[in-house]
Design the sequence.
């Protein structure tokens, strides 16, 4: 385990970055800078010159903020410095009861979180370029689908409008919906092309989609969020990440609740797996038989669907682990 002396917490926003440098639990330095490459390089030079003579003994901790992290990550990677990306909820829940909030305080809290948890530093590594492209394409696809749904919703309320109003609404939405569909088709083709052009991605994709019920979108989602099954290597951990793993709810003898899933989850992944489970139970086979048998026994349908989601996850991870296509005889 590498020994770190300096813990630099960074609160990231669209326009600015707030840096807090902590050593031995005490803040040495704080400064805000613009979120652009030039300003970041200048601030790193200042920190190295005045407060942290050896940046290789520092860990830079920040929250996941999507694309707003990009300039900072690129600068830190170029300098080969240690990066720790942490969940905002993990940091918030670990520091106890807090009063007040601003960017300066948040930067210090992130730095102190890194210092207090220095024995468990999680060094961040960037995913491959092809995987980053897939992540961006999935994000674009999600926004296009949402835009289509927003435009389609009023079309289901035509009966409440006059004939003139119905015609006006249909005419105004038709071109937009057609354009969105064309964009969506184009994105889907780019996703497929990106996968097919990369040998490793194509191989993993074929393993995942060999499981009955796992379609192209679900497979791509799983590959992206697990970093090609390198960041998340266990089915149970992935089920927890997706909000599918049930947890018990008990305390002594007075609180005895049923096990239920947590709301802390990647909702996009959970939705994709839900659709995969529905597709699996619609087709004849062992999963459909399992679903019908459990429902007949009096089990709640959603609980059975959740069990099917877990079965799909375990099958996918088994195929990737064993580097084989899914075979019902080996399941």
Sequence:
């Amino acid at each position: 385990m590498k020994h770190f002396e300096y813990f630099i917490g960074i609160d990231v926003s669209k326009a600015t970055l707030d840096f807090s440098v902590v050593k031995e639990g005490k803040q040495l330095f704080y400064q805000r800078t613009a979120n652009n490459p030039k300003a970041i390089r200048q601030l790193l030079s200042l920190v190295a010159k005045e407060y942290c003579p050896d940046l290789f003994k520092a860990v830079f901790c920040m929250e996941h903020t999507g694309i707003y992290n990009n300039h900072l990550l690129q600068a830190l990677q170029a300098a080969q410095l240690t990066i720790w990306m942490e969940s905002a909820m993990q940091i918030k829940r670990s520091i106890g009861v807090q009063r007040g909030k601003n960017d300066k305080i948040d930067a210090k809290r992130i730095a102190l979180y890194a210092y207090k948890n220095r024995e468990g530093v999680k060094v961040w590594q960037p995913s491959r370029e092809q995987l980053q492209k897939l992540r961006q394409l999935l994000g674009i696809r999600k926004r296009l689908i949402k835009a289509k749904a927003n435009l389609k919703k009023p079309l289901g309320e035509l009966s409440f409008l006059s004939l003139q109003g119905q015609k006006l609404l249909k005419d105004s939405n038709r071109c937009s919906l057609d354009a969105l569909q064309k964009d969506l088709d184009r994105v889907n083709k780019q996703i497929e092309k990106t996968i097919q052009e990369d040998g490793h991605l194509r191989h993993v994709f074929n393993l995942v989609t060999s499981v009955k019920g796992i379609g192209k979108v679900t497979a791509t989602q799983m590959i992206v969020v697990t970093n090609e099954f390198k960041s998340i290597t266990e089915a149970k951990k992935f089920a927890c990440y997706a909000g599918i793993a049930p947890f018990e709810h008990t305390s002594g003898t007075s609180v005895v609740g049923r096990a239920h899933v947590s709301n802390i989850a990647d909702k996009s992944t959970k939705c994709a797996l839900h659709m995969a489970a529905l597709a699996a139970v619609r087709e004849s086979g062992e999963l459909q038989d399992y679903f019908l048998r459990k429902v007949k026994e009096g089990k709640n349908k959603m609980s059975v669907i959740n069990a099917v989601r877990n079965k799909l996850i375990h099958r996918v991870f088994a195929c990737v682990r064993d580097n084989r296509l899914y075979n019902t005889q080996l399941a």
Remarks:
- Residues 6-120 form a domain with the Nucleotidyltransferase; domain 5 fold (CATH 3.30.420.10).
